[in-house]
Amino acid sequence: LIHQYLFFMSQVLCRYQHIWNIDLRFRPAFLGGIMQATDLFLKGNKPPAMLPKRGEYMLKDIQRMAKYYQVPVQISENDFQRILGTSSLGAMRFLTAIDMTQPQYLEPLSREFWMRFWSQHEDISQPENMLAVAKQAGLSSELAQKLLEMISSPAVKNRLKETTEEAIKYGAFGMPAVVAHFNGEPHLFFGSDRLELLGSIIGEKWLGPVPS
């Protein structure tokens, strides 16, 4: 959820879902589980932002991409530590709970979580902030409280585990990951810069990050 490149890809896909006439569905999956299952946390590997030169590059890259994609991401060097120190597991379970109960709210709720984390620098792991996110996304206080209570339930935990395992089955090894089902065949795309290629595969034209 808190992956910055996933924010870019999701926003642009939302802009294209009617232009390309695609059935866009968000599927909550836990990045930590994907990385552990694909050995990216093993063998002494470090997160990219913790490698000095890579972190320096990513800082500039994210700033450029935010401008190019017209997505309100504000990031500084200190944010890399903030990212590593914030768990998104509770938020992912919150999203999983809404997907199980009121899936029509999944897209706006996801967007609001991203906005809170990347534009307003809020700690989305805190229950009060989850409730604020839900309110901003249009959920009633009663439904938001119900979701908050559900995040510790075995049903929600198992559902998130299942969707994470499904992503791994399709070949996901990190985020952002998009699976396009076209002509009866799944196509995995990794990275926020593969949308033009995605359009080519499904026979649609790429009109830039902000199509008119």
From TrEMBL:
The keyword Transferase applies. It is an enzyme of class 2 (transferase). One of its GO terms (biological process) is glutathione metabolic process. It comes from the Eukaryota. One of its GO terms (cellular component) is peroxisome. Keywords: Transferase. Residues 8-200 form the DSBA-like thioredoxin domain. One of its GO terms (molecular function) is glutathione peroxidase activity. Belongs to the GST superfamily. Kappa family. This is Glutathione S-transferase kappa 1. It comes from Nipponia nippon (Crested ibis).
